[in-house]
Amino acid sequence: MSTLSRTLRDSSTMLRRNLLHMRRYPSLTLNLLLTPVMMLLLFAYIFGDVMSAGITGGGADRSRYLAYLVPGILMLTIGGTTIGSAVSVAMDMTEGIIARFRTMAIHRGSVLIGHVVGSVLQCVMSVVLVGAVAVAIGFRAKDATALEWILAVGLLALVSLALTWIAVGMGLSSPNAEAASNNALPLMILPLLSSAFVPVDAMPGWFRPIAEYQPFTPAIETVRGLLLGTEIGHNGWLAVAWCLGLAALGYLWSRSLFGRDPK
């Protein structure tokens, strides 16, 4: 059997293993999904009218703020879901199963590939569920063409891939699952410090660089532009560059940590 065939076979086996874990232990995924859903409902129904009036400078219109809000909530969903990847990897590293895998005739990289692919699929499913909640409470993207929908979904998947590799590295570098959860928390905090809830221009001057020069803001603005027809500008290229850079960094970091001999 060729190296490629063995890698694909072993990676698919590890993917099935991770998908079975998600099905048998759904509480972690549901807990991580609860935060973006609650944020969506809170900002849409409690703050929606006030935020809409403040952003648009016109009358209160909850539906307009909901349209603005949803792309940021989808990014928050991805960030939260990838925390589960860090926890899952840390559990594998500390509970002995990785040591067992090292003694078996399997491709070593298949363990990480299974985690990454499984996490990306989990992120996509989470985005679909949160998106369904958004549609149920009134979100519409009437101006988006089929191509723009495809590009938006593709960018969300690319963000999922990039953050998953970073989360895997965090899980590998953590001594236990609790530490992995804490180490990966910035993946959920950074979307809160972006343009997810208010435009960057409306933020205090000292805070704007924090919101502007980070990976989530250009990704959110790109998805927002694709779905709502707003200006994208240079955000599309910035978002793709951030994703490719983070994916490469996370991959090299994870491979280096996983390749070390256990102590």
Can you tell me about this structure?
Belongs to the ABC-2 integral membrane protein family. It is a multi-pass membrane protein. It is found in: Cell membrane; Membrane. The chain crosses the membrane at residues 25-48, 68-91, 112-137, 149-172, 184-207, 236-254. Keywords: Antibiotic resistance, Cell membrane, Membrane, Transmembrane, Transmembrane helix, Transport. This protein has 263 residues and is an all-alpha fold. It is 76% helix and 0% strand. It has twelve helices and no strands. It has helices at 3-24, 27-46, 48-56, 62-94, 97-102, 109-136, 146-173, 177-183, 186-189, 208-212, 216-228, 235-259. Helix 4 packs antiparallel against helix 8 and helix 6 crosses helix 7. The relative contact order is 0.14. The mean pLDDT is 85.
Search tags:
single chain, 263 residues, mainly alpha, 12 helices, 76% helix
Main sheet properties: none
Structural class estimated from helices and strands? mainly alpha
Number of helices: 12
Radius of gyration: 19 Å
Overall pLDDT: 85
- Number of strand elements: 0
How do the SSEs run, as a string of H and E?
Answer: HHHHHHHHHHHH
Cα end-to-end separation: 32 Å
Overall helicity? over 70%
Any low-confidence stretches, pLDDT <50, length ≥5?
none
Shape: elongated
As a percent range, the share of strand residues is under 5%
Pfam family, one: ABC2_membrane
Main location: membrane
Membrane topology: Multi-pass membrane protein
Family: Belongs to the ABC-2 integral membrane protein family.
